[in-house]
Amino acid sequence: MAPRRTEAVHKHASGIDARAPEAVLALLADAQLEAAAVVRAAIPEIAEAADKIAASLAAGGRLVYAAAGSSGLMALADALELPGTYGIPRDRVFILLAGGADALVNLAGAPEDDAAQAVRDVAATGLGADDCLIAISASGSTPFAMAALEEARRRGAATIAIANNAGAPMFGIAGTSVLLATPPEVVAGSTRMGAGTAQKIALNMMSTMAAIRLGHVHDGYMVNLLADNIKLHERAARMVSAIAGCDTAEAQALLARSGGSVKIAILLAAGAASLEAANQLLDGADQKLRSALSKLEGSKGSRQ
Hints:
By secondary structure, the chain is α/β, with parallel strands linked by helices. The chain has helices spanning about 20-35, 45-60, 70-85, 115-125, 145-155, 195-215, 230-245, 250-255, 260-270, 275-285, 290-304; strands at about 65, 95, 130-135, 160-165, 175-180.
């Protein structure tokens, strides 16, 4: 394995504890920007990973994240947002965090070495061939993440590894490997900083691209959102109004009629004859609103 850049000393870190606060903070900010910039080089692999995620979810499978420490927190941040943002059912997204729920209040280091627990956690999900597991580890060699990957592969699931060191052992296990070659941390080894930033960006890109492939995004709108609070109800009404070209009052009425479904409300506004007809249009278009709207317009033209 190549030397770990995540454990190396940053070239500008010498004497950091004797510098003015403004200078230190400028260095920390610049290091975060540098870490974020490396994600662009991984776009081809992120795209491949997004395709795997979308394929698994489209087949009725689950998306599982497995990680420890700060990488686990990055996974948690991405995973917990998917049901509300993109309407992905909560029982289709799993988070395997080293140390379990206790890690959310005490992020101890020892659980990341518990490979046996990772195997048990994967087994408990009933992971299978229709599912996809993403393992995240800055070093690329965390025992918990590696064992989760190995067990997922053994069970026939799609596998994705995200790490911040070239030559990471995880890359030899996963079907898709995403290298985020972040520079050494300003505080050597503190991968909650630059490495964590890059991981969060990559995970957000990956899950967003998967949602786009599944038809959950239309013209930059989250048209499959789960509106479960006042803010999101208002956002849903604005989306229907903007896409369908109707006023807010009509949008709210259509949302009430559609049971809160933004896509169905838009199709009703566009002329779908009934809830059943709108649902059939969506089903026939793989839940993609653009295709459903195009079919609706085509059916109007054929009747003229």
